[in-house]
Amino acid sequence: MAKIQLQVNGSSITVEAEATLLSVLREQLELTGTKYGCGEGQCGACTVLIDGRARRSCQTPASAAVNKKITTIEGLAQGEHLHPLQEAFLAEGAMQCAYCTSGMIMSAASLLSSNANPSEAEIVRHMDGNICRCGTHPRIVAAIRRAANAAKESGR
Amino acid sequence: MARKQAKAKRATRTTKKTAAAKKGGVVFAPGKWVGQPIRRKEEDRLVRGKGIFVDDQKSQGMLHIRFVRSPYAHANIRKVDVSAAAAMPGVVCTLTGEEVAGLVQPFIEIGPDVGQKVADYPMASKKVIYQGEPVAAVVAETRMGAEDAAELVEVDYEPLPAVIMAEDALKDETLLHPAMGTNKNWHGVFEYGNVEKAFKEAAHVVSIGRMHFHRFSSTPLENNAMIAEWDSKADRIEFWSNNTFPSFAAQFLSPALGVRIDQILMKSFDIGGGFGIKITNYPYMALCALASRKAGGLPVKWAETRTEHMQASAHGNERTYLDTKVALDKNGVITAIESRHVDDCGAYPRYEPLGCVIWAQVLPGSYRLRNARIDMNQVVTNKCPVGPNRGYSRMQQLWFMERVLDICGHALGIPADEMRYRNYIRKEEMPYETPNGCVYDSGDYAGMLDMAKKLVGWDEWKKKQAEARKQGRWLGIGIGSTLDSGTNNFGQARIINAGAPFSGQSKAAIAKLDIYGEVVISMGSVPQGQGHETTAAQTVAEVLNIPPDLVKVKPGFDTEQNAYTGHTGTYASQFAVTGLSAINGAAEKLKKEMLRLAAWSLKVKEKDLEMGVGEQGPEVRVKGKPGKSINYWGLANIVNVNNAGMPEELWDVTLNCRYVYHAPFEVPDLKRKFGNLTLTYAAQIHVAVVEVDRETFQPKILAYACVDDCGRAINPMIVKGQVHGCAAQGIGAALMENCAYDADGNLLASTFSDYTPITSMNMPELLYGHMESPSPFSFNGAKGMGEGGAAPVHTICAALQDALYAEGVVIEDSHNNGDSIFQSVAKAHAGGYAEMVRVEHGKSARAR
């Protein structure tokens, strides 16, 4: 099988060019925080950042991510220091089973990187591609607002 | 008065009150930890993507299985050829239905008589009876290898006519299970009071046409997943799965696989949602085990795809209501209901026909109905088997009762809130015994409705509605009254099958001090986001007077390490009652041992000791004597590694205390179908304002209020989260989600693109209110909650009918999207209402 180089969470890694980025992350790199939910880009559980933008890894051929910066949930925290979104999700209790959480946080990270101060309506619209079956939507929206505020206050 | 006393006596006979309740009045002092909105312990690992879900697991030599599934809903299997698949490189072995039939016994059937003639094998061999049913499997070294090889399996089918509608199933023209001789899986009549007399004396009789509760599923985001390893040397099968009722699954798997139950090891850890749907994934566990054995004992993983999940895991029960007649007095109080209900359990009963009695936990809904005759049938159809989906079987009955209330209210011109105030069971009547012997523990439904109305701004909306109507807009306000009956009495299974060998309800827990003094709690519950680790720690913290952070709770099921009984699992809204009772019991036992040990060690009397945290961590100390204490490490040290000289009378102190909680149940009176079927009754009252667009017929929620009462809330943050979850799933089910089939048995929503689960865009702002009516039947005053009884389904249907009643629309289906609302309006305009509802006033009957 052909080999390709990927830049994942700041490291350069050689992987087999399997079908999807999701399976490369989960099966080869054991970065299992990224989840399979539907396999058709409808649920958002597999969301990762590619060059800072939210992408559905189940719909992304691994080969399409070569030479791009891939960030998964495991690469979001700086060591023990959680990302402001992770802190905000904890503060709001914005998860139940948490199977959707990684994808939610990665989608939200993409939003905040392009819009540091989104309105509630903008958050809701942006997060519409991420499904949470436990119904934590109200808290997820609140957590994203909280993270945006925290970033504003800390001047980041 | 005498009657009231007799009723109260009956209530206490079937359900023993706690000691506190017996003393008269239950007073729960606010806890230091219990009742606090403490952040969930489990979230720290989950937010980092460090949860441990089944598909995240890998092991040495692990193989992957892929199932070949039927595209037909009903077909004879002429031939299955796996030779091309077996010849693929990387393929280790295959399984066919014929082979499987020779290796296993059909699964146990819960139903009696004809139900016992269902032969439920985990794989089809002679014919398939639902779309997606597995007919073969391929086991390969990689997931993709198994997928590719499975494409090469050739199956020759002879399609047969499919039975899709419950009413068609009743006709028995086409049979799914020929050995049964019928499609009617179960039948029983539930009759209470004096129905004839009530109808004779009625001021009004309302007849309602066919109504239908649609099929939907909570479709957890994590699909079914499992790893099975049949170790022939150790002669045991280890399952790592996301099954949410593992002790039940083991009881099904043991006889089917022909192994002793102690040879089955069940494990689970983090689970990505379940909502009941994963209870019935055990047929796949059997197949993975057989595959592992055939592959020489290597572990075999199955990770279901979304389409497999939609087509062939489990759906919620579908129910059709026929020939409903309602008797009312002159004030609109419902005095009797007579109806025929047909439950559709899909192709195989599995957990069914339990749903044929579980609805009776809430037979009268939240109302004072005393006379009822419900003829209950369950049929098999060529559709995905059902499983106990959140709100299981009660939501179907609650929806029926809510429809009855609203339809009668509209027919008689009584407003929806007034209809409820007149019919609700009253606060002062609690504990209230229903006509079928269930005891509603506590609650104030009218008070909850007041609160919900206030939250939503009822009076203002009424004004806005009047304005909107003048402008020709379709705006409706609806109420949904829901009960979440929790802690089920398995004795109700005997109403289904007198010979069923189960009853009661129990949970086990172990509390121990480990060698270095760590407080470790093990339980067998299988949480999927309900925060069991947290509420367990809060409960133990209260007993030992230490912070919850010092309590290590082992989550998940583990046959070897955690505590369990045959009832252990996460289902039937009960953890706050049964799980925490077991944990509290175990912690109290541990505390008692610690006090005995400390009294000996410190040479004082037990009564002079207290629990707390000192400079050297958690400790037992002498009251009023600072520094005179022994910490947990010291206590654990004495028993575990430093026990020379320990007096013989302390040798029974193990610091490893198991406690089993038994819910106070009796076996119901089977002949009368009478008895207490559940211990607690949480309630949810919702109010929704919905507008239907006159152009597109799309419904839109303009305001939504939920008020819940689950007794004493152990952790208000978790409770509120569960209320949100129930609301989201119910709104999705009411307006979007539908497991509809075409006439040939093709599931029309086999992907998320078609099923359209609710997302943030469709979630209204939820106005939230909370009331606490402590349960007199639980040690902590809590009631199980979390299922929520699909409250929004009832509420939104009520609001839609209110919006469209002037057009002649009666909401007769639980699923309403723009398309179906358009059909309802068209039907009403063509005179459908007169067919749907007929009202007789006194003896002078007249049709509207």
The assigned CATH architecture of the largest domain in chain A is: Roll
Spans of chain A of at least 5 consecutive residues whose pLDDT stays below 50 are none
Shape descriptor of chain B reads: globular
The number of distinct helices of chain A, counting runs of at least 4 residues, comes to 5
List keywords for this structure.
heterodimer; A: Ubiquitin-like (UB roll); DNA polymerase, domain 1; 2 domains; 15% strand; B: 848 residues; alpha+beta; 25 helices; 29% helix; globular
Structural account:
The complex is a heterodimer of chains A (156) and B (848). By secondary structure, chain A is of the alpha+beta class. Chain A has two domains: 3-75, Beta-grasp domain (Ubiquitin-like (UB roll)), CATH 3.10.20.30; 84-154, DNA polymerase, domain 1, CATH 1.10.150.120. Chain A contains five helices and five strands, in the order E-E-H-E-E-E-H-H-H-H. Chain A has helices at residues 21-28, 84-92, 101-114, 120-126, 137-153; strands at 3-8, 11-16, 47-50, 53-56, 69-71. Chain A has a five-stranded mixed β-sheet, with helices on both faces. In chain A, strand 1 (3-8) and strand 2 (11-16) form a beta hairpin. In chain A, helix 2 packs across helix 5 (137-153). The longest helix of chain A is centred in the last third of the chain and has 17 residues, at 137-153. Chain B is of the alpha+beta class. Chain B has 25 helices and 31 strands. The longest helix of chain B has 28 residues, at 575-602. In chain B, 60% of the residues are buried. The chains are: A alpha+beta (156), B alpha+beta (848). At the A-B interface, helix 1, helix 2, helix 3, helix 4 and helix 5 of A face helix 3 and helix 21 of B.
